[in-house]
Amino acid sequence: MEKKHYICPKCNNGVFESDQFQATGGNFAKMFDIQNKKFITISCKRCGYTELYKGETLMVGTF
């Protein structure tokens, strides 16, 4: 992900942290516990406001 200067839309703070998580999508993926959705988060360190961005879709199981 390209680094850009982030300003929180809620409190105008410029200090943030980024992270990512994976989730299941659809009944088939849930039934077999396949985490096939990836998201990137940007969170304001002052107020905690968080934005989600879609990442690359992966086919990763949690076997």
What report would you give on this structure?
It contains one helix and five strands, in the order βαββββ. The chain has one helix at 26-31; strands at residues 16-23, 34-35, 37-44, 50-54, 60-61. It starts with 15 loop residues before the first strand and ends with a strand. By secondary structure, it is mostly beta strands. The chain has a three-stranded antiparallel beta sheet with strand order 1-3-4, with no helix packed on it. It is elongated, with a radius of gyration of 15 Å.
Strand content: 35-45%
N→C terminal distance: 28 Å
Structural class: mainly beta
Compute the average pLDDT. Answer: 77
- Poorly predicted residue ranges: 58-63
Described by the principal axes of the CA atoms, the overall outline is elongated
List the helices and strands and how they pair.
Elements: E1 16-23, H1 26-31, E2 34-35, E3 37-44, E4 50-54, E5 60-61
Antiparallel strand pairs: 1-3, 2-5, 3-4
